[in-house]
Design a protein that fits this description.
Blueprint (H helix, E strand, L loop, with lengths): L9 E3 L9 E6 L15 E4 L27 E2 L7 E19 L9 E3 L1 E7 L6 E7 L9 E17 L2 E3 L3 E2 L1 E6 L3 E6 L1 E3 L2 E3 L1
Antiparallel strand pairs: 1-15, 2-13, 3-5, 4-11, 5-9, 5-12, 6-10, 7-8, 7-9, 14-15
């Protein structure tokens, strides 16, 4: 819902500084907030899952570990290339950064994603590819970050195109919004008082 109640904002300069102009900055996105978290309302689905223990939701739980225990990551079944994991951010956001962390399946060390792509979409049907790259085998520590010109997106899709070992997966996917700040000039309404 949109709030259409008018709000008057005034700024009063109270020190001895001579101010000749002022501007108000406001925005609707927080800086450095991962939007792809279940705790923030995001959801994740996958075309293939190894089991309920290694479901898509594990890739948006916000937990990163060293890969010593079998938990907190999404895995594909054995021999599946071309699996996808899609995150629904719940609303359209202006985004410019996506980070992914590969998996390695603790104890067995028998699977991780190799070739991958990242796509973004506003409708969940038509995806624009913003990354096409390769992840190193068994690296569950390093964030691989993709940045691009700000784009509107509600859905972010990870494409596991090939894998090392028995199958692919992902430990975590993170999506960051662009702070959407706007500067509005505040005209002087009298000496040292500005309003919007």
């Amino acid at each position: 819902p949109t709030n259409t109640t008018p709000v008057e904002i005034k700024a009063v300069i109270t020190d001895d500084t001579s101010v000749v102009s002022a501007a108000l900055s406001f925005g609707n996105e927080e800086e450095d907030v991962n939007l792809a978290l279940a705790s923030k309302g995001a959801t994740a689905t996958a075309s293939h899952e190894y089991s309920a223990q290694f479901s898509a939701s594990e890739a948006i739980d916000g937990f990163l570990e060293d890969g010593a225990v079998q938990d907190h990551y999404w895995l594909t079944p054995n021999g599946v290339a071309g699996a996808t994991l899609t995150v629904d951010l719940g609303d359209i956001h202006l985004i410019d950064t996506i980070s992914v962390v590969n998996t390695r399946n603790a104890v067995h060390f028998d699977r991780s994603t190799r070739d991958y792509r990242l796509g973004i979409s506003t409708d969940g049907v038509n995806f624009e590819i913003v990354e096409d790259s390769v992840l190193p085998e068994d690296d569950i520590i390093t964030r691989f970050t993709t940045t691009f010109s700000p784009k509107s997106a509600r859905y972010v899709r990870f494409y596991e195109d090939s894998y090392f070992g028995a199958g692919g997966g992902l430990a975590e996917i993170e999506v960051f919004s662009v702070p959407n700040f706007v500067d509005v000039p505040m005209p002087s309404i009298e000496d040292g008082i500005f309003a919007v």
